[in-house]
Design a protein that fits this description.
Order of helices and strands: HHHEEEHEHHEEEEEEEHEHHHHH
Helix content: 25-40%
Bound molecules: zinc ion
CATH class: Alpha Beta
Cofactor: Zn(2+)
Family: Belongs to the metallo-beta-lactamase superfamily. Glyoxalase II family.
Distance between the termini: 49 Å
Keywords: Hydrolase, Metal-binding, Zinc
Pfam families: HAGH_C, Lactamase_B
EC number: 3.1.2.6
Shape: globular
CATH architecture: 4-Layer Sandwich
Largest sheet: 5 strands, mixed
Length: 294
């Protein structure tokens, strides 16, 4: 309804007066104005579907059209999307953002930089062509409205950074290979203590309604492990969703993960029983080993 009203009004200059009149009639904080305030747009770009099942994400501040592209690892699948949006005047691409240095996340940087001049490369210290590594907790902006906070989450790689973005009451986090829906990344360059801190201190501290956008679509395999460990209602619900949907990114929140992701339930007596451990770091280590050998 709001969209229809807006598009009619925006299509005619005569309607500006009507719009202004409506603004004086509709109380602030109503649904009408709240929907106007949502300006962060996220486009998922699946890559290597059926193999790595990676995601790149195009994040745009709609009022200014300023955009960043997250982990554009496979340029043949990402560049055409960027080109068509630039040519249509829909985006002003300013930066590549990388969640970590692995080739299937940062390996496309060189080619993207050749095709799109003058981009900043924001990411961890080991990412290809990186020229801005934010400090842990450092914030920056995309356009006028989107605030971005870099959260260091070393373990999968030592340069892993999750990017928490907020625009009004819209909250999202891009978690790379640290947190997946119903799972977590392998501990390639770190240990269970670091993953426990990343998931259960750093990411768990985000507001529960923060939507999760991971680096891969691994939910089907992850929920298989979760259900083998624990047969709770939230896990059964996730299993049903994964069976019916091929894409699960942005559909679950940090609050959901605390319920259906066993790696975020390291203080739960049910998980203690299954792993035979009670110390959260030892529980994390045990779960990862069980998952690796599944
Ligand atoms: Zn990785």
């Amino acid at each position: 309804m709001t969209l229809v009203i807006n598009s009619i009004f925006q299509s005619s200059p005569h309607c500006v007066g009507v719009m202004n009149f409506l603004r004086t009639q509709i109380p602030r904080g109503s649904r009408f104005f709240r929907s106007q305030a949502r300006a962060m747009h996220i486009q998922s770009i699946p890559m290597w579907t059926g193999k790595g099942n990676n995601y790149a994400y195009l994040v745009t501040d709609e009022p200014t059209k300023q955009s960043v592209i997250i982990d554009p690892a496979n340029p043949p699948e990402v560049a055409p999307v960027l080109k068509s949006q630039i040519e249509a005047g829909k985006i002003n691409l300013t930066a590549i953002v990388n969640t970590h240095h692995h080739w299937d996340h940062a390996g496309g940087n060189g080619d993207i930089l050749k095709q799109f001049k003058g981009l900043q490369v924001i990411g961890g210290k080991d990412c290809a062509s990186v020229n801005k590594t934010p400090a842990d907790g450092e914030t920056f902006k995309i356009g006028d409205r989107i605030s971005v906070k870099a959260l260091y989450t070393p373990c999968h790689t030592q340069d892993s950074i999750c990017f928490y973005m907020q625009d009004g009451d819209q909250r999202v986090v891009f978690t790379g290979d640290t947190l997946f829906i119903g799972g977590c990344g392998r501990f390639f360059e770190g240990n269970a203590k670091e993953m426990h801190k990343a998931l259960n201190e750093t990411l768990a501290a985000l507001p529960d309604d923060t939507k999760v956008y991971p680096g891969h679509e691994y939910t089907k395999a992850n929920v298989k492990f979760c259900i083998a460990v624990s047969q709770t209602e939230p896990i059964k619900k996730l299993q049903a969703f994964a069976e019916q949907n091929t894409e699960t990114q942005g559909k679950f929140t940090i609050g959901d993960e605390k319920l259906h992701n066993v790696f975020m339930r390291v203080n739960d007596p049910e998980i203690h029983k299954v792993t035979g451990k009670t110390d959260p770091v030892e529980v994390m280590a045990a779960l990862r080993e069980m998952k690796n050998s599944m």
